[in-house]
Design brief:
The protein has 13 helices and seven strands. 33% of the residues are buried. The mean pLDDT is 93. Pfam families: Methyltransf_25. Its EC number is 2.1.1.-.
Amino acid sequence: MTNELFHAAIWEKAWKEDAHITVKKMKSAGIDPAHSFDQKANTFNEEVFSEEGRRRAKRIMSWLEDQGVAFKEKSILDIGAASGGFSVPFAQRGANVTAVESSLPLVELMNENISGLTSGTVEIVPVPFEDIDIGAKGWEQAFDLVFVSMCPVLIDWESVEKVLSCAREFCYMSMSVGPGEHSLVDEVWPLITDRPRKTGHWEMGYLLHLLLLKGYAYQSLITREMKTKVVTRATAFEEAISMLKLFGLPADERIRSIVSEHLEKNYPADQVTIQQGGRFGKVLVRLQSQNMYSREEG
């Protein structure tokens, strides 16, 4: 066991073959990761640029600054940039951002969101990162910061190496840790089945352990983040069905009927309050100055 614990090749193989990682669960549920936000792009954009969404971006950027990351006149590769929730504030702080996003509805919204920028730049690359030839693009060690926030591009160690290869100083990666939490799913689960939920989304464990074994210097943070929102019954229904599919349940007529009846009975005013979130992991890899950073010394 000790040999396996400290054998990087074993961890690489385990991650690649793990059937419960996010992307594989999405695909098994019939969800295309590259276009999973196409139908809800407008709603997502509103959340990202809401007051709470802006506060979240500010918190993460402040954490990065606490580790020595600067933005002004820096080059940033934002992978899975969505509608620009981070690309826009990066540019507002004076950065030159290359934003990779494969969802065309989100790309259209990002174009709108960057139209009023008065500082920095944002260049949009509207293709999946997986399809980009890093060498042909001239992206090898080309960016001061590579930023990957909650994007399903990190599917195994090979994909991590591709991301890391673009970074010159820092590489930030974040992802879910363990199964997501959703209050409506909690309500309907015992009505549907008595079996325990399937766990998953442990990619952060693979990532941190392999970074350790391969000699990288990094800071990591695991937190539990929750948000409360009010949506219509129709929106709540679609969310619940989508999450139930990710937990391995079929979206058959019986389950759809149970969820629909629960919503009609318990939310007659067509306003469903949902608490959603879970644990999230962040890691910042230091590629140049690998010593502990202090703002006072910096």
